[in-house]
UniProtKB/TrEMBL annotation:
SUPFAM superfamilies to which the protein is assigned, alphabetical: P-loop containing nucleoside triphosphate hydrolases (SSF52540)
Keyword Kinase: no
Keywords: ATP-binding, Nucleotide-binding, Transport
Gene3D superfamilies named in the record: P-loop containing nucleotide triphosphate hydrolases
Superkingdom field: Bacteria
Listed name of the protein: ABC transporter ATP-binding protein
CDD domains registered for this protein in UniProt: ABC_Mj1267_LivG_branched
Residue intervals of the ABC transporter domain: 39-285
One GO location term (cellular component): plasma membrane
A GO molecular-function descriptor: ATP hydrolysis activity
Organism the protein comes from: Quadrisphaera setariae
Length: 326
């Protein structure tokens, strides 16, 4: 079973080495075939009006590895996540999970088959308790019947087992003392942990994390990183979207870079971050930037920082607008 309930692995373990070995000979080109892909997408296109938000020719995600999906704002990363997990429908294309076609499979069934996701803005339901949030995860992100059961107090044996499993997971994520608190009372970082813990309720094979580090204060950063690495040590595959390049460098075995809906580069973190196609994707037309290794990496860091700042500014103006309406 994928998800046991041991404490986070202390350090990089044998699965990290196995993932590195498995990916060592994979060509560093967009669409590269992997030795053991758990997720394969072909010709996936999603248009919004005239804009092809996603137009991915081919991508494979290696089983048991941590793969980062990076790219500038608007590159199509979240839309691609939504498509793969059944939260949105593509205009064209097919994709499979563990050899099974996932086209037209709704999100809750995708989750039940073993591929779960978290969201960029955490969806922990703030007026439910931490435990109730966990129980929603047990039903593969569908949850209505369990929600009813949770309120009605009609525990059946399955629900008792789910509660025990939830408590184990909450213990692992140091949230067990908060089980009866409203999720709305948790800090941003604790909500991220709750999202991850909830995703594990269905014993997934693949965990997809949309910006796990966004809004997490430094005190919880290491803990979150440890938990993500731990997913790999337990045999799970992780695919995550992230702007934080330190995190990408620290934990990713492989990086897929998207720009304008397409996959433009792939490879291990260091090679991808020095790839001119990646610098180009982040910097757009600013060809005056030197692509020599050191300065390229620095230029990329600067470009990513600018992206993140722009995103934070946009979020603030959203908040201000909402505040103004309230
Ligand atoms: N529901 C929608 N309707 C119209 N356009 C959309 C919709 N969702 C996304 N888009 C557009 O599709 C493009 C890709 O957006 P997406 O959110 O997937 O990018 P992203 O790489 O995840 O960006 P970020 O890093 O900022 O989260 C953007 O131009 C966005 O404006």
């Amino acid at each position: 079973m994928a998800g046991d309930t041991t404490a986070p692995a202390a350090a990089e373990g044998t699965r990290k080495q196995a993932a590195t070995r498995a990916l060592a000979d994979v060509p560093r080109v967009p669409g590269a075939e992997k030795p053991d892909p758990v997720l394969v997408a072909d010709g996936v296109v999603r248009r919004f009006g005239g804009l092809a938000a996603v137009s991915v020719d081919h991508v494979e995600v290696q089983r048991g590895a941590i793969t980062a999906l990076i790219g500038p704002n608007g590159a199509g990363k979240t839309t691609f996540f939504n498509l793969l997990t059944g939260f949105d429908r593509p205009d064209e294309g097919k994709w499979s999970f563990d050899g099974t076609d996932l086209a037209r499979v709704p999100a809750h069934k995708v989750a039940r088959r073993g591929m779960v996701r978290t969201f960029q803005l955490t969806k922990a339901l703030s007026r439910l308790t931490v435990m109730q949030n966990m129980l929603l995860g047990a039903s593969g992100q569908k949850g209505e019947s369990l929600l009813r059961a949770a309120f009605a107090g009609t525990w059946r044996s399955q629900e008792k087992a789910n509660t025990e499993r939830a408590m184990e997971l909450l213990g692992r994520f140091k949230l067990d003392t908060k089980a009866d608190d409203f999720a709305g009372s948790l800090s941003g970082g604790q909500r991220k942990l709750l999202e991850m813990a909830r995703a594990l309720m269905s014993d997934p094979q693949v965990v997809m994390l949309d910006e796990p580090m966004a809004g997490v204060n430094p005190a919880l950063t290491q803990s979150l990183l440890g938990h993500v690495k731990d997913l790999r040590e337990q045999g799970m595959t992780v695919l995550f979207v992230e702007h934080d390049m330190d995190m990408v460098r620290d934990i990713a075995d492989w990086v897929v870079v998207m720009a304008q809906g397409k996959v433009v580069a792939e490879g291990p973190p260091d090679s991808v971050m020095a790839d001119p196609a990646v610098i180009e994707a982040y910097l757009g037309g600013h060809h005056d930037v030197s692509l020599a290794d050191d300065s390229a990496a620095e230029a990329l860091e600067r470009a990513v920082e600018a992206e993140v700042e722009a995103e934070i500014a946009a979020e603030h103006s959203d908040d201000d607008a909402k505040g103004g309406r309230a």
